[in-house]
Design a protein that fits this description.
The protein is mostly helical. The protein is built from 15 helices and no strands. It is 75% helix and 0% strand. The radius of gyration is 20 Å and the shape is globular.
């Protein structure tokens, strides 16, 4: 089957899906993403927790335990392990850990509003990967909305008075990993294969041990275990909450990608940043106001809301052959 045929079948399946699950899965993902960023920001910045990698390990362990216990109690179902599973999953485990660690590292090194702005670059990367990997096409009005978001991000980031090169590198790496994770997850959650629970479970299983080894070898694990706030009930509560939210975020991402496109999942993540950006201005304590930055933020949000409106109107599915004159061209080689 060609990539174009696969994209058309996927579009037909999406169109056949009831609207309510699509909207609810998007809202669930947005809420989980919003809460996860806030809790991680509190741990890594307010408490100055020294180990984003250790926090990532906690989230992986929570995912493994929750899904394994759920499988034992027949709440969820996914295939037992066999030698074909690593082949079916590749390259998702590597993308998964890269997305996890770069996201946690960038959260601790940037102000909350600038973090949310630079995360917008995930959107055109996802669009590009859907075209290349899934063979999709999108109408011109969707493309314009996406590039409005990017224009705003450039304007806002260009006036960042708290420039942090390491933070920028981490967040742009996070954008690349997030885009790849969304597109490959959409490709691999076929119920005939691993299904959404199998993808989540085996991703975490394959990457938790290598991550622990890296954490030990870099001294990251030791810094985490000697952290002074382990006796602080509020810190421990937020750490456990972050681990649980990490699982919910991964699950909601897969669920939203299942009912919608990977691009829609990415844009939902950008739109929920409206709340994060403005809350960060008021209570984050690390936002330096500049008019150019503020204008850029608002352009970003306008583009995201425009995309959301077009999606709800049903224009975000890949363009059909009759719409090719309005669609982003894809070269056929």
């Amino acid at each position: 089957m060609s990539a174009g045929q696969a994209a058309e079948e996927e579009a037909d399946a999406a169109a056949a899906s009831p609207a309510l699950p699509r909207v609810l899965s998007a809202l669930f993902y947005g809420m989980c993403s919003f809460l996860t960023v806030l809790v991680n920001k509190a741990l890594l910045s307010a408490y100055s927790f020294p180990s984003p990698m250790f926090l990532g390990i906690g989230q992986m362990v929570a995912t493994i335990l929750i899904l394994y216990v759920s499988k034992l109690n027949k709440i969820v179902d996914f295939p037992d392990f066999d030698k074909s599973i690593p082949v079916k999953l590749f390259p998702l485990p590597l993308i998964y850990v890269g997305n996890h660690l770069s996201g946690l590292s960038s959260t601790s090194k940037l102000s909350l509003p600038m973090f949310t702005v630079l995360r917008k670059f995930t959107i055109p990367l996802t669009l590009l990967l859907e075209i290349i990997i899934l063979g999709k096409r999108y109408p011109l009005n969707i493309i314009v909305s996406v590039f409005a978001i990017i224009l705003g991000a450039f304007i806002a980031a260009g006036s960042d008075l708290s420039f942090n090169l390491e933070g920028y590198i981490f967040v742009l790496l996070n954008d690349i990993f997030t885009a790849a994770n969304g597109v490959y997850t959409k490709q691999k959650i076929d119920p005939k294969e691993l299904g959404k629970y199998g993808v989540l479970f085996y991703n975490a299983c394959f990457m938790v041990i290598p991550t622990v080894i890296i954490s030990f070898s870099t001294g990251d694990f030791q810094r985490a275990t000697h952290f002074q706030h382990w006796t602080d009930f509020l810190f421990v509560f937020q750490f456990i909450l972050s681990c649980l939210l990490g699982f919910l975020l991964m699950y909601s991402t897969v669920l939203c990608s299942h009912y919608n496109s990977a691009l829609t999942t990415t844009v939902v993540g950008a739109v929920k940043n409206i709340s994060i950006a403005y809350i960060g201005m008021l209570i984050g304590g690390d936002y330096i106001f500049s008019m150019l930055n503020f204008v850029g933020l608002n352009i970003c949000m306008a583009g995201g809301l425009r995309y959301s409106f077009l999606t709800l109107r049903g224009n975000s599915k890949p363009a059909q052959h009759g719409d090719e004159e309005n669609a982003l061209p894809v070269s056929k080689r």
